[in-house]
Design goal:
- This protein is α+β, with helices and mostly antiparallel strands and about 150 residues long.
- The relative contact order is 0.11.
- The model is unreliable at about 1-5 (pLDDT under 50).
- Helix content is about 45%, strand content about 20%.
- It is built from 5 helices and 6 strands; from the N terminus they run αβααββββαβα.
Length: about 150
């Protein structure tokens, strides 16, 4: 069960609004930079402290992505899972596998399941398209260089 928010402060309001404006998960440093860019004078230590406080009461989700703790506003009070783009942080809430399946997997390995989290990482369609375009551009450069080399030899 989630604890109730102990104190409602201006900083918490600013943090929540800043998180609502982010599409996916965001690091504390990136959130701090966004808030500073908007002219809000909140220290990085305060950002970390407020994010930890919001996490404790269940107002934000948190994951580790590329070795960095990331945060996202959590409007859903229920247990949920995420599909996360490891490049841009875009996040989609997904339905979990059947609870019975999870218990069965745990049991097969001698575990008793007490809780679970499920985060699926990959590349979103936009990042896949960017990768495809980058690879196509690199292939074209290699072909052009090879053609230039062939012309020089001839």
């Amino acid at each position: 069960m989630r604890k109730s928010v102990s104190r409602h402060t201006r900083q918490k309001d600013v943090m929540l609004q800043g998180l609502r404006e982010c599409e996916g998960f965001v690091s504390a440093q990136d959130l701090h930079r966004r808030l500073s860019d908007e002219g809000l004078n909140i220290g990085l230590a305060t950002v970390y402290r407020q994010l930890r406080s919001l996490e404790e009461v269940g107002s934000v989700d948190t994951i580790r992505l590329n070795g960095q703790q990331m945060f996202r506003i959590c409007e859903d009070n229920g247990h949920h899972h995420h599909l996360i783009c490891e490049r841009c942080g875009r996040t989609v809430e997904i339905e979990p596998p059947d609870e019975q399946w999870l218990r069965h997997i745990a049991s097969d390995h001698g575990f008793t399941m007490t809780s679970h989290t499920l985060e699926v990482f990959g590349l979103c369609p936009d990042c896949q398209r960017r990768d495809d375009a980058d690879h196509a551009g690199a292939d074209t450069q290699v072909q052009t260089a090879a053609q230039a080399g062939a012309q020089t030899v001839a």
